[in-house]
Structure formats: structure tokens, C-alpha cells
Design goal:
mainly alpha; 3 helices; single chain
Amino acid sequence: MTLDTRSPRTPLLRSRDEKMIGGVCGGLAEWLGWDVTLVRVAYVILSVLSAGFPGILVYLILWVVMPEGA
């Protein structure tokens, strides 16, 4: 088994530029290479479908755990 080290993934950081509340969705979008609006809409939909609370709790945990980008 070999590891592919050609394109190392950037660290998961909160965004300073694409920030509405804490920059979590903006950071996730940058890390995934997706549009930030798509990530925000998907996060809201998933939070609503899971009765809201788990999505809010996950967001707060990510806000605390993810370091802020430069």
C-alpha cells in the first residue's frame, strides 16, 4: 500500500474572508474546494432535517476546535 503525497490537503481552518458568524462554513468550503453558498445551504438543510440541535452543536464545536485562518 502506497500513500499519495503529490497533493497534500490544506489544513482545516476557519475562514476570515467568507465569514457570517464564525467562519466555519467558509473554512469547510475552502477545504473542500466548494462554493461557500453551497456549503451554507447544505449545512442549513442538514441541520433542519436533524431537528436543528445537532447541527447547532456541531457548528459550535467546530467553531471552538478549528483554528482561524491567516
